[in-house]
From TrEMBL:
It comes from the Eukaryota. It is a multi-pass membrane protein. Its main location: membrane. One of its GO terms (molecular function) is ABC-type transporter activity. Keywords: Membrane, Transmembrane, Transmembrane helix, Transport. InterPro entries: ABC2_TM, ABCG_transporters. It is found in: Membrane. The chain crosses the membrane at residues 26-50, 133-154. Residues 3-176 form the ABC-2 type transporter transmembrane domain. Signal peptide: none annotated. This is Abc subfamily abcg.
Length: 176
């Protein structure tokens, strides 16, 4: 799936980035990060509810703490989450982004951090219920405001003061 999505992004924006006025670059990065945010958080939302009973049993037995579980789960989920890196690395060279090693390193680091944040959002949404369907139905309540308050779809200064705090907690605001 990640390879196919990476190829779709690569073909859609193939060598357009060096010749555009910034709109294609912004569109590419925004749509890629939104796809990563949704795909990563859904993956966690589907799995965490099944582990929740084990986590609670170990916690109440005094065998394991939630911190230990989440640290272990995070470390264990990193190798599979590298598959999401394929979705970002594959189109990087196809679209014509900066060919320097430093720029590529920053790009990969940003992708890794957004993936990590998306997994955290997935944990948050799925912690509301032991049923994965409920977690998936709650997930848009967290993701949609992050996309809306990313700054891509509006002028940042036009946000009412009472809603500006949402910009500060939006993963997309910092990644884009």
């Amino acid at each position: 799936m990640n390879t196919a999505l990476g190829l779709v992004f690569g073909v859609l924006y193939f060598q357009q980035i060096p010749h555009d006025n910034g709109r294609n670059t912004a569109g590419y990065l925004f749509s890629l990060l939104v796809t990563l945010l949704i795909a990563s958080s859904i993956a966690v939302c589907m799995n965490f509810p099944f582990d929740f009973a084990i986590l609670m049993r170990e916690y109440y037995a005094g065998v394991n703490s939630p911190l230990g579980y989440f640290l272990g789960r995070t470390l264990a989920s990193e190798p599979p989450s590298l598959a999401f890196m394929i979705m970002g690395i594959l189109p990087y060279f196809m679209v014509g982004l900066a060919p320097s090693a430093v720029a590529f390193g920053w790009y990969c680091l940003l992708f890794f951090i957004v993936n990590f944040a998306a997994q955290s959002i997935g944990y948050l949404a799925s912690s509301f219920s032991a049923n994965p369907v409920v977690g998936l139905s709650i997930l848009p309540l967290f993701i949609t405001p992050m996309i809306l308050f990313s700054g891509m779809l509006y002028e940042r200064n036009s946000v009412p003061p009472s809603l500006r705090w949402i910009q500060d907690i939006s993963v997309m605001n910092y990644s884009f």
